[in-house]
Design goal:
By secondary structure, this protein is mostly helical. Among the domains are: about 135-200, no CATH class; about 260-374, no CATH class. The protein has helices at about 10-30, 35-45, 45-55, 60-75, 80-100, 105-130, 135-150, 155-165, 170-175, 190-240, 270-285, 290-320, 325-340, 340-355, 370, and strands at about 180, 185.
């Protein structure tokens, strides 16, 4: 069969390019456009690009990366930001492409994408630290304050943050917070100083936590969950194309397809390793060493990410047993993943300890194929 994974579907390619372009235009029209686009590039677009790669093809996925890089240039006017964001977005898609061409099995593919993603994040962190003199958090926080201070909608945006309880003002400490001028108003200088100090603190804390979060929980969610979802919908799309186009389209990514998600579970030996991570996390909270505190937090992120996936597998298994439609199952899992990760983690722990699906055989009768389903 001729490998069509580079370009699978004209319609999917056009639709994906249009949706990505529209999202970039929408984000560019909002206040703090560069910040909004940057956050989505970190946490959302990598999943979208993997899906585009398996449904439309790798060439359309690279085209979507180009659209996002153009959007980053328009919002920041920084070639460095464009280059760094492009490298970040290209890494997981390129790893998936290599694995697809080499017909690497799913779990090895997930491991390669994981290693590629973590290595890319660490490389970008080192480069950005070198560019900013080794103080990413403080420099980024100060840039956020300076950018917000010159925005035309500055006071309205700060007021919106106050109403959302993101920022707070103690009127007893700063006194009157508004200056009214007819139908117009603005914050007093004392109020602005206090609000900007809070903005600086919150951005600084977020920037200090974002890299550990990316290399611990985000890397697992993307390499395992994101890759599995992308391959699943890519296979379904290829099967639909088989009715319209000549050639066995459903065999795309056949060597890379994941096992049935409703049967995923963590083998006992890997579960024991995760309990070690959880124990180290608890120990790190008892001491005052900031390095151990950070390391413990990352270990908890890994523990949570893995058991969240197992919790999703348990939910999917019960829904399939009840005959729930695939679209409803997918929607349920997305909503639970976005709004209730702690509940999913508890479900995953319950499944690991009680084995309600009876997926594990008696000791000494394990299936080697099952044992690779981490």
């Amino acid at each position: 069969m001729r490998d069509r994974s580079l370009y699978i579907s004209h319609r999917a390619a056009l639709v994906s390019a249009a949706l990505v372009a529209l999202s970039v235009v929408f984000l560019g029209s909002m206040p703090l456009s560069a910040v909004n686009l940057g956050i989505l590039m970190l946490f959302v677009y990598p999943f979208v690009l993997l899906l585009i790669a398996t449904v439309a093809g790798f060439i359309p996925a690279f085209g979507a990366v180009a659209i996002l890089m153009i959007g980053m240039w328009v919002t920041t006017r920084s070639l460095a930001a464009v280059a760094l964001s492009g490298l970040y977005l290209l890494a997981p898609v390129s790893a998936l492409m290599v694995c697809a061409f080499l017909k690497v099995p799913f779990w090895r593919t997930a491991g390669i994408i994981l290693a590629t993603y973590v290595g890319t994040v660490l490389l970008l962190y080192v480069l950005i630290q070198a560019m900013l003199g080794g103080n990413l958090a403080a420099t980024g926080a100060q840039a956020a304050v300076e950018g917000m201070s010159v925005m035309p909608q500055r006071d309205y945006l700060l007021y919106l943050f106050m109403r959302s309880n993101i920022l707070r003002l103690d009127t007893q400490a700063v006194g009157n917070v508004f200056i009214e001028n007819g139908n117009d108003w603005r914050f007093t200088q004392e109020a602005l100083t206090e609000l900007f100090n809070q903005v600086r603190t919150r951005v600084d804390l977020w920037l200090r936590s974002v890299v550990p979060s990316l290399i611990s929980s985000m890397s697992i969610n993307l390499s395992v969950g994101g890759t599995a979802v992308a391959l699943y919908y890519g296979r379904r799309h290829a099967q639909r194309l088989d009715f319209k186009l000549e050639g066995p389209q459903q065999q795309l990514f056949e060597h890379t397809l994941p096992p049935v998600f409703s049967n995923w579970f963590i083998p006992k030996q890997y579960g024991n390793l995760l309990w070690v991570l959880a124990g180290f996390y608890l120990i790190s909270r008892l001491g005052g060493n900031p390095t151990l505190f950070l390391a413990g937090g990352m270990m908890y992120n890994v523990f949570q990410a893995v058991y969240v996936l197992q919790g999703l597998s348990l939910v999917n298994s019960y829904q399939k047993a009840r005959g729930t439609q695939p679209r409803m199952r997918g929607l349920t899992m997305v909503l639970l993943f976005l709004v209730a990760p702690p509940i999913l983690m508890v479900l995953g722990l319950f499944d690991q300890l009680r084995d309600p699906r009876k997926l594990r055989k008696a000791e000494g009768e394990g299936n080697p194929e099952q044992d690779r389903r981490i």
